[in-house]
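Subject: Sanity check before I submit

Could someone independently write out the structure tokens for this chain? I want to compare against mine line by line before I put it in a report. The sequence has 198 residues.
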Amino acid sequence: MEFGILVSLIGFAFATSATPGPNTLMLLASGVNYGFRRTVPHMLGIGMGFFVLLLCVGFGLGALLQQMPTLFLALKIAGGAYLLYLAWRIAVSRSISENANAGARPLNFLEAAAFQWVNPKAWAIAVVAMATYTNAANAFFSTILVGVVFFLVNLPSASIWTMFGALLREWLSHPARLKVFNISMAILLVVSLWPMLR
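---
Independent answer below. Compare away.
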């Protein structure tokens, strides 16, 4: 891959990883409600789940989905339903928890990784990235490179959103502020569905 194309790929990976979307909004909310340390498995799950999704799209799953629009629609519906469930979980959270009292906990590694497979934004990014930055002459290497670049860029981007949430913890320790914040995050999470489900 040429240097200019690699720089463009890194920029694309950063822009799509750092801009608001379902993953970043959930990390922000998790940083507020559970702190940075407890959100690390969630961050790693996003990175690894998206890495695997990218490789699968690059190695043929994207082409298969284009030939089976009903399957892609089913993924969108499943993703939308799961996002609504996660938005509800965020909206009803009423106290910043230092431990898993009352069953409250952030997403774990496997849940966050699995979420990438029903995240409409993740699918859109994966398809565009593989179509734009891989080439038929060296398909295997370029597919792996795209996946690795996204994985390396994703962790700092996820960390920024989680850290921002963790920095807000003290100010949001007041129940009324936290309630407004969590409901706002839930609404934004639902709104983030609209561009992907249109």
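---
OP: Matches mine. For the report I'm noting this point. The radius of gyration is 17 Å.
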